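Notes on consecutive records. When two proteins share a document, each keeps its own sequence and its own token line. Never mix them. Below: protein one.
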Amino acid sequence: NKAQPANIKIKDILPAGFKFVNGSSRVNGKKVMDPKGGRTVTYDKVSLSGNGEMVISYMLVVGSGVTQGEYTNTAMALNSLTGKVVSNIAQATVTVTSDPLFDNALIFGKVFVDKNGNGVQDEGEEGLGGVKLITVRGEIITTDAHGRYHLVDVSGGRWERGGNFVIKLDPRSLPKEYRVSGRNPKVVRVSPGLPSKVDFMVFKEE
């Protein structure tokens, strides 16, 4: 690297969908002004001697549209007068994974005997235990003695629109005198990080 220190600038291409955190720039551990630009940012007037090394650190946040996978950041030193690359190409790859707390949904509810047919569990309308619920993912959930169930780690879909989840009560698991009331299966709209309540009503044939 034969260029003069004052003629050096660092060009950094951020991964798509990542955003720069203001005030987070450090060069060799010392705080510096944030770079200019959007996805491609530039640190101007950097002091770098021939065959020298430099560590630039900063923070990025992952945008809402970023999906799971690997993302690569690329940086290089340029001669600020000619624009010619005068260093090696430095790259760093990060892996974006889901966070169950924020990206997944919770589905819970009850299977109960809807004696008056109003779709709400009123006093005296007991839950029904031992009933099996089936999801499109192939899971089988059995209600407890009070008719309660819950399902964790349900994909919440994309942050901007959520997703649909289908769950069905297996009528074969009901006592023979009981029937499902209302829709079965049920489609619930889920959102990342939020719970959704899905109840199933049954009635007893006379």
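Protein two starts on the next line and is unrelated to protein one.
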Amino acid sequence: MPEKLDSTYEIYPRELILYKRPTSTVWQCRYKVDGKWLIASTKLRDREKAIERAKDLKRIAELKKEANLPVVTKKFKDIARLTKQRMDDKAKKGEAPVSYNVYKRIIDDFLIPCLGNKNIDKIDYAALKQYEEDRAKLMGKEPAYSTVRKHNVTLNYIFEEAILRGFMTRVNKPELETKGRKGENYATFSVKEINAILANFPDWIKRGRSEAKREQRELLYDYVRILIDTGARPGKELLDLQWKNIKYKVRVVDAPKQELDEDGFLIEDIKKDELIEEYDEEGNLIESIEWQPTVILSVYGKTKDRNVNGFDETFKVLKEIVARNYPDSEVTLKKLTENNDPGYVFRTRSGGKLGTSNHMFDRFLDEHNLLYDPNSGKKRVFYSFRSAHTTAVLNFDGVPLRDIALQLGNSPGIIAKHYDRATGEAIAENVRAPKARQALFHEIDVPEVYQSKKLKKQQEEVAEKKKS
């Protein structure tokens, strides 16, 4: 056996050891409780006093163990980081739900700043009430019920980690209350307002002061049209979309025999604007062939991967993006999707992302008197398109609630959540909703109330100059 150093004393053989670190004058101790070695500082420089303190520490730890209390206290922030590490380990194994990203953000942005320096076994009712006050200050408002619920789920993960590591017992785990303000629905758009938005976009794009601004406005127009067509969640669900995440089929309706695959879809890439008019022997126009594209977007949703169905407008937008961003005529939507191209869809011609789109979108809506709902006074946001889409397909086409729930990645109830096995692709025909899309993408002359305030002012200034 190696010779013991003068700075090491075995008080109880293989049970309690006193020692001093080379860089410290204070005595430390190691002691065993329930088969586990624990470390603590005696905070004393006198050896004899330190021996007695070490015995006390071991005795207190044994009493805590007998009383079903945690033997060692640890800082909340340390256990929270261990919880994040466990989540990351599960993610590497492909076992982590998307919600872990939300929980980790809550840990970093709220829990550690507010509770980090407290001992995990000292988090009691008073500490949680203080946390509620501190959280509201950080947020600048009282959190919604759903937000509080997410915070409580995160706290429970941390408490379970502490219990697993012996830093807390189930007996002294605090009970969490889920209270919060009632969540408010986003303001929506009427069909008429959707028509006005789409009618105003092209001219607004042209009036961009620079090429970079016009590119950003173009991309916002693409983004808005696909939001309206699909009802997808705004944000990363679409903005992180890559060409490899897209599959599409173009179906022929009431057409003569063509080269089709086994599912009845055209094999070649057909553009809707390439239809050829044909006449019979008497010069009568033969009814045009109708192409019906179905675009399947594989998105990384709020809780899991899912498929979102897009139709004519989504197909049109994607082809426009390809035409703008890939000047090489050899690059087509068909090749990009079939070759699993890793490029991102929502990029400008110069490769830029859709920048500060919230502010840009606010300015666009404000300019056209559409920023606030005239009935509720609530501000419109990108999520308002999701509500408008849902209302339209239910009202105009009577799409079954189950199908629209799957399209949107939500659940109408427990049955759909736990038992429905239908896939996004399976409900594609049911959510095609031609009447809704015809209404949503109907071209109109913009009513005066929605016309550009800025343009009106410029026109008035020009008229005044002419008079003078």
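For the record: DSSP finds 16 helices and nine strands in the chain.
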